[in-house]
Design a protein that fits this description.
The chain has about 170 residues and is mostly helical. About 45% of the residues lie in helices and about 5% in strands. It has one domain.
């Protein structure tokens, strides 16, 4: 009897955890969203691209494109919250770090809600850009791209503050 109760408890816990994960996640599924860089941005031209004020506005995809992709990806990710307004169609490698603006492999529906939501990731994206674009840079473009795509939470902890978010 205890085995059956234990198994039911495990199934219930797994269902709750699965539902929470499906509502939005800190990390994209890397098989669907591994990240993609913009081939027009290189270390050699960052002063004319990502480090130039207003540059990302010149390459940001139109909302009709990202909203359509967001709806498709909410379904593909299996999120329980189907409301597009609950998510930012986020660039895994942000535009300000040389991420590809339109490649679906660099875009995913990141939840706004929670301690580790889209607005929190935006903070480390800006911090990393400042480190890459500083007069005496402390990071290369490639290093920042790796940090943001592989473990943005670790970068946040290293450069901004402690945060209680799952790591990949």
């Amino acid at each position: 009897m205890r085995t059956v109760v234990f198994a039911l408890c495990l199934m219930s816990a797994a269902s709750v955890v699965g539902e929470a994960a499906a509502a939005g996640r800190t990390w994209p599924d890397h098989s669907m969203t591994p990240g993609a860089t913009n081939p027009k941005v290189t270390q050699a031209n960052i002063k004319r691209t990502i480090c130039k004020a207003g540059w990302t506005k010149t390459i940001r995809p139109v909302t009709s494109y990202t909203n359509t992709l967001k709806r498709q990806q909410i379904e593909a990710y299996g999120y329980s919250d189907k409301k597009p307004g609950s998510y930012e169609e986020d660039h895994l490698i942000s535009l300000q770090l040389g991420g590809d603006p339109r490649d679906p492999h660099n875009l995913w529906p990141e939840a706004y809600a929670g301690t580790c939501g889209a607005r929190v990731k935006d903070v480390i994206e800006t911090k990393l850009k400042r480190l890459v674009c500083a007069p005496k840079p402390t990071l290369t473009l490639e290093e920042a791209q790796q940090m943001i795509s592989q473990n943005w939470v670790g970068a946040y902890i290293q450069y901004v503050a402690e945060i209680d978010c799952p790591t990949p």
